[in-house]
Design a protein that fits this description.
Length: 299
């Protein structure tokens, strides 16, 4: 009898990585609303629905390709060995069907219901994540750099979903929010890689920046990238961009400094508990920064 803990709904949630997909949609949604208010327009809620639906489908497809390609490696790691494909609770035919249909439909929605640039960005993110980043993870730590591009795409997609409706162009404001999420990827993902380093090694993944793994060099680079993230996060507050003002800049600066502390302590102690604290700080940091920029549009 099938374990009641592994229902069809549970397996679908695990296969599509629902929590990650919702975070992607949240980033795109928040930046879309920010872009609309930044340009003093009214919100088109039909576009919001299409953005969230199309973005969710493209993310589901990316996650599907990832799990299909890594199904044999997932068997080797504790954190992934209970996924639907390694345990054969889901067939490859079902996985491929979900992945391909979601990818095609999501791209078409972003392209035709919003605008071509948004569709191109969605398709490019899917392709880079699935066909470049995923196979690179076993070959080089530079995979994290490549993965940061699709990882940072949601706010860019959200911004262009509004702004590129009448022209194919990416504005400095759109690039500024992209750069924030791009830089955020490094301390966020490396904190996870530090915690899961031994498990990742079982699958042949070397994701920390130093060949020595959980050593001072890796911890120093985590601190360095966390430090770089602080001025990058201030870009939308620059007078030439003007997405946010003085109060928002203080809030964003304070959030960056708070995130810097566990990164510094990780370098000082090499203790995994500080990687955990940095990981949770990164979960909180990004939504708060995006919400801060959105809130700034209303006063």
């Amino acid at each position: 009898m099938k374990d009641k803990n592994y229902s069809l709904a549970y397996d679908l949630k695990e296969f599509v990585k629902l929590r990650l997909a919702l975070l992607v949609v949240f980033s795109a949604f928040i930046t879309y609303i920010t872009a609309v208010k930044y340009r003093n327009h009214d919100i088109d809620w039909y576009s919001v629905i299409w953005l969230c639906f199309g973005g969710m489908l493209v993310t589901i497809s990316s996650n599907g390709f990832n799990q299909i390609f890594e199904k044999d490696l997932d068997k080797l790691m504790s954190r992934t060995q209970n996924r639907p494909l390694p345990t054969k609770r889901m067939s490859l035919k079902t996985a491929w069907s979900i992945t391909l249909i979601s990818g095609v439909l999501g791209t078409l929605i972003l392209w035709f219901k919003l605008n071509p640039l948004t569709g191109i960005l969605g398709l490019s993110s899917l392709a880079i994540y699935s066909f470049i980043y995923t196979p690179m993870k076993q070959k080089t730590p530079w995979a994290v750099f490549i993965g940061a591009f699709p990882g940072a795409a949601p706010p860019l997609i959200g911004w262009t979903a509004f702004e590129a409706s009448d022209k194919i162009a990416i504005s400095p404001a759109a690039l500024s929010v992209f750069c924030i999420q791009f830089m955020w990827q490094f301390p966020h993902f490396w904190a996870i890689a530090w915690k899961c380093h031994d498990d990742y090694k079982k699958g042949g993944f070397q994701l920390l920046p130093s060949p020595g793994g959980k050593d001072f060099k890796s911890a120093f680079q985590i601190l360095l990238y966390t430090l770089f993230m602080i001025p990058i996060a201030m870009l939308p507050c620059h007078s030439q961009i003007g997405v946010a003002g003085f109060i928002s800049s203080i809030i964003v600066l304070s959030l960056g400094i708070i995130m810097l502390y566990p990164a510094f302590m990780l370098m000082k102690t090499l203790n995994e508990k500080w990687a955990t604290k940095l990981m949770f700080a990164s979960f909180i940091y990004l939504p708060l920064v995006l919400i801060t920029f959105l809130t700034d549009q209303f006063y």
